[in-house]
Specification:
Layout: E1 6-7, E2 13-14, H1 20-42, H2 55-69, H3 79-84, H4 86-91
Antiparallel strand pairs: 1-2
Bound molecules: zinc ion (ZN).
Zinc ion binds near residues 21 and 22.
Length: about 100
Amino acid sequence: MSRRKKNFPCGHKGYGQRCHRCAQEQMARNEKQQQKNAWEETFSKDTIDLRPFPKNVVLKARQILTALANQQDYRHFHGKRLRHDRFVITQIPHFKK
Ligand SMILES: [Zn+2]
C-alpha cells in the first residue's frame, strides 16, 4: 500500500488525515499549559499564599512547611541559608499555631 505525501493547510507536508507536526506542537503546547495549571493548582494546597514569590522560594518554603508539619525544628532545617530568607523566618511563627 503506497501512501502519498500531501500538503496540509498549515504548509507542512506529510501523511494521514492531519499534520503530525502541528499535532505534536499542539500537544507540546497543551503539556506546557497543563504543567502551568498543575503548578498553579499546587498553591491551593499551601497553608500560606506563596503565589507572589518566585518558584525557587516557593519550593523552599514548601520544604520548610512540610518539615514543620513533620514536627521538625526549622532552625535545623537548611541551617545558615534559611537565615537569609527573612520571608520564611517571619512567616513561620504565624503558622505554628
Ligand atoms: Zn503543520
